[in-house]
Amino acid sequence: MIPNQSIFNNPEVAKLLRGESKVRSLEKGAILINEDTSVISLPIVTKGSISIYRTDEEGRELLLYFLKTGDTCVMSLMAGLFNDKTSLKAVANEDSEVLLLPVEKVGILMKSHPEWINFILRMYHNRFKELLGVIEEVTFKKMDDRLISYLQKRSQVSGLNKLELTHEEIAQELGTSRVVISRLLKDFENRGLLKLGRNKIQLL
Q: CB neighbours (10 Å) of residue 126?
């Protein structure tokens, strides 16, 4: 379902987007965008959610932010507009669907529809705040606080309080070891904050 505050609420823009874009369905875990690749289309999420990562030279991934239904990746937009390669990786959190709008159509929308400019600026503002949050967490917060924040964000994105995640997946996204995550999750369970199951975490 597309959120109420969405560019799709403008019938003219929505018609243009759906007419000019290709629809792509993604299974959970499917890669939408790979690092160091050229961007020819702007992805707009119409169903599900997407995780955005940055990988270091040793292959470790850091989760930067999530794209929810109605969102787009402005970093991909910038790479496409300036004929640059993307430095991010986008992976489906769940079965999802995106519209792939050709980059050359973005300029047309900007010229003809002020609502589109507002949409892009709002997305840029949101992503900038989220990146600042990542920097703050990595720099100043302890891992237990980061883990709580991560689980809360996952719950908000999915709209569920039961998350299908392995300890290894969480460790990779937070840039730590599985042993650390398992210890913290067990501590949270003992404190009554959540309930652990086989590859499942229920937030209480």
A: 15
Q: Whole-angstrom Cα distance, residue 16 to residue 8?
A: 10
Task: Please give the domain boundaries of the chain with CATH numbers for all domains.
Answer: 7-139 (2.60.120.10), 142-203 (1.10.10.10)
How many residues make up the chain in this entry?
204
Q: Report the side by side order of strands in the sheet with 41-47.
A: 22-26, 96-102, 41-47
pTM over the 0.90 mark: no
Q: What is the per-residue pLDDT across 99-155, written as a single tens digit (0 to 9) for each? A: 999 988 887 888 888 888 888 888 888 888 888 888 887 777 788 888 998 899 888
**Of 40, 110, 98, the residue nearest 67 (C-alpha):** 98
What is the chain's alpha carbon radius of gyration, rounded to the nearest angstrom? 18
Rounded Cα–Cα distance for residues 133 and 141 (Å): 10
Alpha helices (H) in 39-166, listed in sequence order: 74-81, 103-112, 114-140, 143-158
Nearest to 25 by CA among 50, 52, 53: 50
How many Å apart are CA 17 and CA 109, to the nearest integer?
9
CA 184, distance to chain mean position in Å, is: 24
Helix (H) or strand (E) holding 189: helix 178-190
Is 105 in contact with 120 (CB distance < 8 Å)?
no
